[in-house]
Every structure is written in structure tokens, then in C-alpha cells.
Amino acid sequence: MSLRFRDVLLYMLAGVVIVGGAVGMLDAVMAPSAGANGKPAGGLAIPFVNPLAHRDRVNILLIGADDRVVLSGKFEPGRSDTIMVVSLNPQLKRAAMLSLPRDYLVTLPEVPKGVQTYPQKINHAYHYGGVKLARRTIERELGIHFDYYAKIDLKNFVKVVDMLGGVYLNVPDYEGKGRGMNYDDDWGQLHIHLKPGYQHLNGEQAMGFVRYRKSQYHARSGGVLGITDSERASNQQIFLKAMIEQKVRLSNLPSLLRAGGFVLQHIDTDMDWRTAVALMNVMRGLDTSKILHLTLPVVDKTIGGTYYCYAPPGKLEEMRAEMDAFLAGATDVPNSNIKSGALASAAAEAASPAAPAGPARVKILNGSGASGAARQAYALIRGSAVHLHSLGNADHYDYEQTVIEYVPGRRSTAQRLAAQIGVPGAELREAARQPGPAPPDITITLGRDFQTAADKAGSRHETVG
Question: If DSSP states are collapsed to H, E and C, what string results for 107-158?
Fold first, then answer.
């Protein structure tokens, strides 16, 4: 993992949440109360004209870049290694977020002399032409006009989380054997060492949680342990949801004001302050069930020995249509949406029924039709604080998507297992406890999405016996 980071955009969203929360909480304190006659009884609230009051669509480009000053003292522009498009409907209080991979193949509208326009990775646009070129490139690629842009720096993210007193999160055991998440990069000054389980994280630890992708440990097959970009995006959204529920509270107002003031000083944006405050209030008031999270599916491609990726024909159009329909209120977030499932917050998790004692008893059923899929899935979770209940075949082999049923209190374990077997988009279902012999704590019915993930990892298939 290099010094460049892909996740700065999350920090921008965290900043929006923090400042919006501070403004909203302050407004609640300062707003005039109503007198007995229904008229204001006085207060300190200042009249505010909302620039978004009559708008039904606002498109924002969140840009992350690792700008730095090198040893020579020269400013060196970085690359926008994570790109997120955020579209909001302030009237319906809905938001759609589309993530683009940093290696996405594009033709840049313009480049410095001697630099080729194609092939280029989308994150190079910022490096060659700053915000202006990045904005033009992404607008042309997506066919969307951005009303505003914003970006924030990594080191400020750590400071803000610490100002708010840290955050409670559930850390999955991605590496198995109770190792959790581990990675060291001395040059990039990134050190991640998180044990699995629900715990309090400070700023540095939270940064590790949202940046983690590959491990310093290797699997028995020789490959590096770790997670996919989609799984990392899920972790980012889990963090964001936890920040909203744990920190945007009236009792936390002093810390919110301090952190909000710090964020405002370190955000680079073309919004005027009225629009920024209005936007942050919209974000603060969003119901998280009304946030659609999309990650563009891509196909790998190598050109001249360099890795790129691109969207299959029609996928960009499908994503735009899905965003448009959702923002207009014509559709809702699907239950199986990968990010929707990942948005269960740490606070909600803490309030859920207590997990049953001891390791989870796991039953794995092959619903994909691929020979040996159940045994293969068990090999991926063996030794990760679970006991095997049984292996077998599902009622049919036509499951497109993996389904994971869990008894109350085992949701976090179900999420962890989904990540470990490579299907973070699995459908999670809570199963009510039934009378009679104790059922398994978790039942995994493998779909064809598992087979695709296994093929991509180059895994071997064995027959269930």
C-alpha cells in the first residue's frame, strides 16, 4: 500500500457529517422557542437563506489527492486515487453515491506536452491538471455535470476523529485465526494492527480501518490475504454511519463545534458558505435507508504491461439510470444492495441482542451447482473462530446470490464470513430462533457469486462428499 491513498473522499464525507451535525445541533440550541401565543419567545437564531431550498438535484464531485511537499520544498500534486460522485435530492432527502476505481481507463481531454492522452488512469487527471482537469474528465466520462467539488487531506481526518473522542466499530477477522487486520508501510507511514471484535478506535486506528486492503500475511496458497475494493468501500460506509449515530448528538456539541471548525479550515471547495451549510444540513438529516451506494463493475485490462480497468458496455448508463430513478423517488434501496447491507452501524450493532456464547456453529450449503463449493468455502473460514455444523447441498442449484442466515446476535459474524469467502454483497437474513434442537448459528447458502469470486482468486474446486 503506497503513500497514495484511495479513501480521502470518505474523509470529505466525514467532514460534511461533522460540520452539518455541529451546525444542526447549534441551531437546535439557538433557535427561538415558541411562546404561549405560538409566536417566537426570542432567541439567537440568525435568518438564513437556503440556496438548496428549491433544488431537486445537486451533483458533487468528491476529490481525494495526496498533495505533498517533498524534501526539496517543492509542492507535488498527487493523484485522486478514490473518486466518488454524490448526488442529492434535497427535497426528498435522498442521496446516491457512485464510486469509481482509480485505475479506470480514460482518454484525458488535455495533458502537458509530451504526455499521452490515452491510455490514462482516471486518477492521473488531477496529477496533470488539478481539479479542473479531473472535473472535465469525469464529467465527460459519466455524462454528468457537477455543481460543486470538494476535497480534504488524510492527516486532517485523523485529527478530526481524535477531536471527537474516537469511534466504536466492529473489526472483522479478515485474515482469520484472530489476526483481524494487519499491514505495515514504513515509507508511507501507515501501520494497521487491529484485532477483531467490537472496540473503540482512535484516529490512527480508524484511518487503518478504512484504508486496509491487503495484509502483511500470506495465505497457505501463497497469495496475500486481504479484501477487495468493494469490501473496503463497505468499511468506509460502516465508519461513516457510526460517526453519524455516535457523534452527531446534542451532548457532543462542544466537540462537534471544535471539529467542525477545524474541518471548515481544511476543506478545498468551490461552494460558498451558505451552500456548504445547507448541504451539510441535508446530509445530517438523511435517513441512511435513503442512501444508495453504487460501485461501478469493471473488467480488467492490461495495456503495455500496465493495469487498467473499464466498465462493460452499458454499465455506466445503467448506473446513471439507477441513480436518477432512486433520487426521483421511483425506487428504493434494494435489500441486497452491497452497501445497504454494510451500513449497519456499530451503534445499532451494540444495541442488538447479545451474541450467543462461544464460536459460531456454521452450516454451509452448495446452491451454486459448482462441485466442491461448500468445502471450498469452509476452507476459507477454517480456523477463524467458527465451528463447522455441517456441509451439504441446497434445495436447488440456481442461487445467483449467496444468502447468509444468522440467529439474533450473530450479524457481525455473518458479515465477517461474507467478506472472508469473497461475497461481501451476500444477502443477510436474521432467522428467528425455533423450538426444538438448536439450529446452526449461521447458515451459508452459496450462490454463483461465490463461484465467480473463487474463480477470480484462482481457487481449486473439490467435490462435496
Answer: CCCCCCCCCCCCCEECCHHHHHHHHHHHHHHHHHHHCCCCCEEEECCHHHHH
**Cβ–Cβ under 8 Å, residues 83 and 122:** yes
Number of H helices, E strands in the chain: 13, 23
Could you tell me which residues are beta bridge partners of residue 86? Answer: 60, 97
Higher-pLDDT residue of 79, 59: 59
| DSSP string for residues in 407-458 | -TT-HHHHHHHHHHTT-TTPEEEEPPP-SSSPPPSEEEEE-HHHHHHHHHTT
State the Cα–Cα distance between residues 211 and 209, nearest whole angstrom. Answer: 6
Tens of pLDDT, residue by residue over 264-317, are: 676 778 887 778 777 777 776 677 677 887 878 888 899 999 999 999 988 888
Q: Which CATH architecture has domain 352-456?
A: 2-Layer Sandwich (3.30)
Query: Range(s) for CATH 3.30.70.2390 in the chain?
Result: 352-456
What integer pLDDT is reported at residue 140 of this predicted model?
A: 92
Give the E-state strand segments of 165-208 in sequence order.
Answer: 167-171, 181-185, 190-194, 197-201
So what's the pLDDT on residue 44? Answer: 38
- The answer to whether residue 259 scores a pLDDT higher than 60 is yes
pLDDT tens-digit series, residues 131-151: 899 999 999 998 899 999 887
CA distance 172 to 195: 8
> What's the gap between Cα 166 and its chain centre?
18
Look up the CATH number of domain 8-346.
3.40.630.190
Between CA 163 and CA 307 the distance in angstroms is 39
- Band of pLDDT at residue 155, cut at 50, 70 and 90: low
Provide the pLDDT confidence category of residue 439 given band limits of 50, 70 and 90: confident
- Please check whether residue 12 is in contact with residue 264, taking contact to mean a CB–CB distance below 8 angstroms: no
pTM: 0.55
Instruction: Tell me which H or E stretch contains 350.
Output: helix 346-351
CA–CA separation, 153 and 157 (whole Å): 7
Residues of the chain within CATH 3.40.630.190 domain(s) are 8-346
- CA dihedral (352, 353, 358, 360) in degrees, to 10, reads -70
Q: Is 431 within 8 Å of 407 (Cβ atoms)?
A: yes
- Nearest residue to 80 (alpha-carbon basis) of 151, 142, 23, 177: 151
All three cell numbers of 195: 484485532
Burial class, 130, CB count within 10 angstroms (exposed 0-12 / middle 13-18 / buried 19+):
middle
Pairing type for strands 120-121 and 105-106 reads antiparallel
C-alpha cell at 333: 434501496
